[in-house]
Design goal:
By secondary structure, the protein is mainly α. It has six helices and three strands.
Length: 126
């Protein structure tokens, strides 16, 4: 249900598109690594990337010295779309949580705890 609330706040993008665009924006990646980071299958990712590229939000860049290697980068239009999506979702979350300050505080505390757990998990894997 929360995913649907957030997705409805996005005028021009789906949550999977947002997730993949966010991952690419945080660090340009090759498609095979991106599938793992975005928790998607390669075929699903390929279709999603084709759509993002068609919209002008990402570009595939050939990797020097690797004939088959392709890196993915967010374009200026993609960065603009990503900022608009982040703003829309933040506004929607603020609207939803505005009616209950206690619930808002609990959500923020929970997200902070989740972030700490994820960081610890990543440190342990390295």
């Amino acid at each position: 249900m929360a995913g649907r609330v957030l997705e409805r706040s996005l005028a021009d993008m789906t949550l999977p598109q947002f997730r993949v665009l966010s991952v690419i924006a945080s660090s340009p990646e090759r498609a095979n690594r991106l599938a793992e980071k975005a928790a998607m299958s390669r075929p699903s990712l390929t279709g999603l990337l084709d759509g993002l590229e068609t919209r002008g939000w990402v570009q595939r860049v050939h990797v020097e010295g690797d004939r088959r290697g392709v890196s993915l980068e967010v374009t200026l239009a993609g960065a603009t779309a990503l900022r608009a999506a982040e703003k829309a979702m933040t506004s929607e979350l603020e609207r939803v949580l505005a009616s209950s300050p206690d619930e808002r505080a609990a959500v923020i505390d929970g997200l902070d705890a989740l972030e700490r757990a994820i960081r610890e998990h990543h440190r342990a894997r390295q």
